[in-house]
């Protein structure tokens, strides 16, 4: 990846995902349930589900495995 592509990726990531969405995405990379993520973040499971849907839409994926692969490719963990 060129420096320009890296800069665009970082800019897209910074502009596209909220801080909380980045936290939720990082949590998805671990082997935990949405309920466990909700407990860790002191929110409801439905809040996490909503944030996960938003992350999926923003990064253009439709499964947790795809989101995890995207996160790892973009240095989120």
Automatic annotation (TrEMBL):
InterPro entries: Sig_transdc_resp-reg_C-effctor (IPR016032), Tscrpt_reg_LuxR_C (IPR000792), WH-like_DNA-bd_sf (IPR036388). This is HTH luxR-type domain-containing protein. PANTHER family: DNA-BINDING TRANSCRIPTIONAL ACTIVATOR DEVR_DOSR. SMART domains: HTH_LUXR (SM00421). Residues 10-75 form the HTH luxR-type domain. Signal peptide: none annotated. One of its GO terms (molecular function) is DNA binding. The lineage of its organism: Bacteria, Bacillati, Actinomycetota, Actinomycetes, Micrococcales. It holds the Pfam family GerE. PROSITE patterns: HTH_LUXR_2 (PS50043). Keywords: DNA-binding, Transcription, Transcription regulation. The keyword Transmembrane helix does not apply. One of its GO terms (biological process) is regulation of DNA-templated transcription. It comes from the Bacteria. Gene3D superfamilies: Winged helix-like DNA-binding domain superfamily/Winged helix DNA-binding domain (1.10.10.10).
């Amino acid at each position: 990846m060129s420096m320009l592509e890296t800069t665009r990726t970082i800019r897209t990531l910074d502009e596209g995902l909220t801080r909380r969405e980045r936290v939720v995405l990082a949590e998805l990379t671990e082997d935990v349930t949405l309920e466990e993520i909700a407990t860790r973040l002191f929110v409801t499971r439905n809040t996490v589900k909503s944030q996960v849907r938003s992350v999926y839409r923003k990064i253009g994926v439709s499964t947790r495995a795809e989101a995890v692969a995207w996160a790892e490719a973009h240095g989120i963990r």
